[in-house]
Write a structure and sequence with these properties.
This protein is 64% helix and 13% strand. It has 348 residues and is α+β, with helices and mostly antiparallel strands. A 5-stranded mixed sheet has the order 2-4-5-7-6. The chain has a two-stranded antiparallel ribbon with strand order 1-3.
Length: 348
C-alpha cells in the first residue's frame, strides 16, 4: 500500500488544490467586503480562520480514507469511524479558528448563538466533501494500478506464448537439418561440413532475436537463403528457389523467423517426394500499409506426400494472433498442383 499523500506523489495536484482554495478564499473576501460591508481586514481574518484553515487541516482526511477502504468496510463501524474523525477535525478546526480570530479582534457576545451552529454544520459538510474527494482519488489510483498490472500480465502472457511457439519451431527444424547432415556424413563429408557451418550461422540468427522482435525483410531474406542453401545441398536440382522481390521491401519490418516454417513445409510436402525440379517461389511487395509475402511451391498431387500435423502453419497463425491480434493475416490456397501461402505484415 502506497502511504504517500497524493499531494506529495503528484505535485501538480497540490498546486491545483492550492490555486483552487486561493481563488475561493479571495472571492469570499471580496464578497463579504463588497457585498455585505464587512471590513476588509475582518473578512481576511474570517476567511483564513475558516476556509483556508480547513483546506490545510482537511488534507489529513486522506490518511483516514486510505486506512478505511470503502469497498472493504461499508458498514456501521465504517460510518462510526468517519463520524469520530469528523468530530475531532471539526473541533480542532473550530478551536484553532477561534484562537486565531481572537488574536486580531474580539468576538461579539452573540457569536456562539449566531455563528457557531452554522460553522459546525459547515465543518461537517467540508469533511464529507473531503471524504468524497479523497475516495475519488483512491479509486482513480487503484484503477490505474489495476490497468498497469493487467498490462504487465498481458505482456508476460504474450511473451510466454511466443516462447512456447518458438519451442515448436526450433526442435522441428533441428531434427530435419541434423537428419540431412547425417545422411551426408558418409556419402559426401565436405557437403556435410558445409551444412554444419551454415546451420551454425542459421541457429545463431534464430537465437539472436526474440520471437516478438522485428527485423528488416532484407535480413530475414538472407537467413532464408541460408536455410535454402542447407537444403539444396541435400536435394540438389530438385530444389529450385526463385525470388521476385521489390526493392521497396528490403527495409520493411517483419517478425523474425516467421517465414521459416513455410519453407520447411514447401520442402517437406513439395520437394521431398518429387521426381522433377520443384520451384519454391518467393514474391514480396508493398501493399498499402502491409508487406505482402507470398511463398508458392509446386507439387505432384499423385505422389503420396509425407503426413504432418500442420504445426508450421498453425504456428504462424498463432504468432500473428499474438503479435497483431489478427490471425487472418495468413491466407492459404491449394490448387491441387500448386500450394500458395500469403502473409500480410502490418507496417503501422
Amino acid at each position: 500500500m502506497d502511504l504517500r499523500h497524493p499531494f506529495v506523489s503528484r505535485p501538480k495536484l497540490a498546486i491545483v488544490y492550492a490555486v483552487f482554495w486561493g481563488i475561493a478564499g479571495t472571492a469570499y473576501i471580496f464578497l463579504q467586503w463588497l457585498g455585505y460591508d464587512v471590513p476588509f481586514g475582518t473578512a481576511v481574518v474570517d476567511v483564513v480562520a475558516t476556509i483556508l484553515l480547513f483546506a490545510l487541516i482537511g488534507t489529513s482526511v486522506w490518511y483516514v480514507v486510505r486506512f478505511s477502504p470503502f469497498e472493504n468496510r461499508p458498514n456501521a463501524s465504517f460510518f462510526a469511524l468517519h463520524l469520530i474523525v469528523a468530530t475531532i477535525i471539526v473541533g480542532l478546526w473550530l478551536y484553532i479558528g477561534i484562537v486565531f480570530t481572537k488574536m486580531f479582534h474580539p468576538l461579539p457576545d452573540d457569536w456562539v448563538s449566531q455563528t457557531l451552529p452554522s460553522r459546525i454544520f459547515m465543518g461537517y459538510l467540508f469533511y464529507v466533501v473531503y471524504v468524497i474527494f479523497f475516495y475519488a482519488i483512491t479509486f482513480y489510483q487503484n484503477f490505474r494500478e489495476k490497468v498497469r498490472r493487467e498490462s504487465e500480465l498481458k505482456a508476460l502472457v504474450k511473451e510466454a506464448e511466443l516462447h512456447a511457439l518458438k519451442s515448436q519451431i526450433n526442435p522441428h527444424f533441428l531434427f530435419n537439418s541434423l537428419n540431412s547432415i547425417s545422411s551426408l556424413t558418409m556419402s559426401d563429408p565436405q557437403k556435410a561440413q558445409e551444412m554444419v557451418i551454415n546451420l551454425s550461422s542459421l541457429m545463431r540468427y534464430s537465437l539472436k532475436y526474440k520471437q516478438n522482435e522485428k527485423v528488416s525483410f532484407g535480413k530475414e531474406l538472407e537467413n532464408i537463403k541460408l536455410y535454402l542453401q542447407i537444403e539444396k545441398v541435400r536435394f540438389g536440382v530438385k530444389l529450385n528457389p526463385v525470388f521476385e522481390i521489390d526493392e521497396s521491401c528490403a527495409d520493411a519490418k517483419i517478425p523474425t523467423m516467421i517465414l521459416q516454417p513455410l519453407y520447411e513445409n514447401a520442402i517437406k510436402y513439395g520437394v521431398y517426394e518429387a521426381t522433377e525440379p520443384v520451384d519454391v517461389i518467393t514474391c514480396c511487395r508493398r501493399k498499402d500499409d502491409f508487406l505482402e509475402v507470398t511463398i508458392q511451391n509446386t507439387y505432384d498431387p499423385n505422389v503420396q506426400s509425407k503426413k504432418g500435423e500442420g504445426i508450421g502453419l498453425r504456428n504462424i497463425r498463432d504468432r500473428l494472433q499474438v503479435l497483431f491480434n489478427n490471425p487472418g493475416l495468413i491466407k492459404i490456397r491449394d490448387l491441387n498442383h500448386t500450394f500458395t501461402v500469403t502473409i500480410l505484415i502490418p507496417q503501422k
